[in-house]
Amino acid sequence: MPYFTKLILFLLCLMVLVESRRPKRKRWTGQLEVSRPSHLDKKNLVDVTKIRRGKPQPLLRVEDHDFTMRPAFGGPAIPVGVDVQVESLDSISEVDMDFTMTLYLRHYWKDERLSFSSTSNKSMTFDGRLIKKIWVPDIFFVHSKRSFTHDTTTDNIMLRVFPDGHVLYSMRITVTAMCNMDFTHFPLDSQTCSLELESYAYTDEDLMLYWKNGDESLKTDEKISLSQFLIQKFHTTSRLAFYSSTGWYNRLYINFTLRRHIFFFLLQTYFPATLMVMLSWVSFWIDRRAVPARVSLGINTVLTMSTIITGVNASMPRVSYIKAVDIYLWVSFVFVFLSVLEYAAVNYLTTVQERQERKLREKFPCTCGMLHSRTMMLDGSYSESEANSLAGYPRSHILTEEERQDKIVVHLALSSESNSSRKKDLLKGQMGLRLFQNTHAIDKYSRVIFPASYIFFNLIYWSVLS
């Protein structure tokens, strides 16, 4: 009995010992555990971002210097190189005379206060939070109206510091700046705009601003395009700008030349104006007695030309000089207006002619069959028998249609006892009638003169401006 008791106690102790040496199972929590190599000790793993107790040892000694002063303050001017990459030309506004551009602006300078010792990293990159703690160039855009730094998803600012103290400062900016445009040859014009960069506070004695790689400092995206303009070229220049109260400053220029596409204005302005002028010529083929038709056609073409001129000027700045498109539109307007005046002249001369005919018939009554007779050309509408009887021809003799188209021959018998003064009055009446006869001849001449003059004007216009 004591033997079995000792055996059971021994087995229980053995089981407890085995169970204590077995690894415990962990409850599943749904998270993956990363296994760490067995040869790495916790003491060898150092977290460089961990803030330790006591005085920190930062890699950049920002707190040890006064960054409100420029680098090498009191010495020569600090050189600041600049290069620009143009991302897009967003818009060109003729009314506001400005342009909007999105670009990457990069600055290069050396600040020995930011130098650090490093054996592994060639440079360190920071975001915009460090900008407020160090000195950066105070570059601004001259003649800018609006500008902002992009902040999606964070501020688009990058700062890269090299061990020897060289700094690269880059930002993504959209700026709207003024562009002095000359619309003398609009829409056959070319415009040259400039984006100007300059230090706001530091003169050329403190800060020397320059293009880092000359003309190679300006890069553009090949996909840049505008709907109304063809971008011909980008180039850079630099010069000194003087302010009477502060001094001389280095100023950098981003110049670009734009040439306007003419096809849009051909469709929207020139072709409609030309068609209105040609439409006004249709009235020359309409009968002069159709007063409502010719008057309504002339008025409609004049109003349409006025609408075209108003629409073009609404999209342009109110400049005090004459533009090329103004010359074309106003000359076209004059041609349309002259076609209306042409019919007014025809209608007036027709009325005068009819009045002269009535006076002559009253003054010189027809006495057919007298010995001494003279002929006079009159315009009127008579029947065939009346015309032949008035002319002294027998009814059997019929005049041809060509002879009776615009004039009839009336034999007015004059007495041989008439004095010389009466003969002079008769000759004056004959000359006046010949002048006013056939007023529709004005329409015939207009059918040739108006188109020929307008074609000649177009030849001169396009040869000079193109």
Explain what this protein looks like in three dimensions.
It is built from 7 helices and 14 strands. The chain is an alpha+beta fold and 466 residues long. Among the domains are: 78-260, Distorted Sandwich (Acetylcholine Binding Protein, Chain: A); 264-356 and 456-465, Neurotransmitter-gated ion-channel transmembrane domain (Methane Monooxygenase Hydroxylase, Chain G, domain 1), CATH 1.20.58. Strands 1, 2, 3, 5, 6, 7, 9 and 10 form an 8-stranded mixed β-sheet that branches. Helix 2 runs parallel beside helix 4 (324-363), helix 3 packs antiparallel against helix 4 and helix 4 runs antiparallel to helix 7 (441-465). Residues 28-35, 368-399 and 401-419 have low confidence and may be disordered. It comes from Phyllostomus discolor. This is GABA(C) receptor. Keywords: Cell membrane, Chloride, Chloride channel, Disulfide bond, Glycoprotein, Ion channel, Ion transport, Membrane, Postsynaptic cell membrane, Receptor, Signal, Synapse, Transmembrane, Transmembrane helix, Transport.
